[in-house]
Amino acid sequence: MNKEASCRIQAKFALLTNPLLIIVSGPSGVGKDAILNRMKELGYPFEYVITVTTRPKRATEQDNVHYHFVPTEKFQSMLEGSELLEYAKVYGNWYGVPKQPVREAMAKGRDTIIKVDIQGAATIKKIMPEAVSIFIAPPSIDELLNRLKQRSMESQFDLDLREKAAEGEMKQISLFNYVVVNKCDGIDEAIAQIQAIVTAEKCRVTPRKISL
User: Fold this and answer.
1) What's the rounded Cα separation, in Å, for the pair 32 and 137?
2) At 134, is the secondary structure helix, strand, or coil?
3) What is the pTM of this model?
4) Measuring CA to CA, how many Å separate 193 from each of 71, 115, 208?
5) Residue 82: strand pairing partners
6) What is the spatial distance between Cα 212 and Cα 45, in angstroms, rounded to a whole number?
7) CA terminus-to-terminus distance, the chain
8) Which residues face 95 on adjacent strands?
9) How far apart are CA 57 and CA 66, in angstroms?
């Protein structure tokens, strides 16, 4: 069975079961964006919630595609209006997950993916303990540090911060339901494991019941 046919079957099956809220997290540079972008390209039937951030847009990023890039004043307004499911200041910039897209997707019965950092994942799990949490891990710390250096998008100061944080973040795996190792040139394998997790969750005798 090809990936397109598999995606169609998964989409039909999803309508028969309770929708899942899937948290995808992991250390910076592990390849979370690459995995999710590939899943979108392949047509996997998920609702992908876009994070709001005050971080400056990188040259390779598009507004409202990779993130909703907003000024600090707009972010504070959303915060004061209780429009964010979770929020955090990471490496000097604010990040937050908007509530409304999550509510709308879940109301439509669509499995929903939220990509957040480790701190954000922990916050959402406290609010919504039935969410499915997946930790994306590198093959090794050394490989993760190499990926961070190859990106060449941060200053040396920011790179040092991310390297220091990575070791601490790797120790948080036990807080998650599942771990998927994103090997070198192994994005499709990582995606297959994520789909296997979703399939297993859909086969639970007692389905998860998500409420927001």
Assistant:
1) 9
2) strand
3) 0.84
4) 37, 17, 19
5) none
6) 21
7) 36
8) 53, 88
9) 9
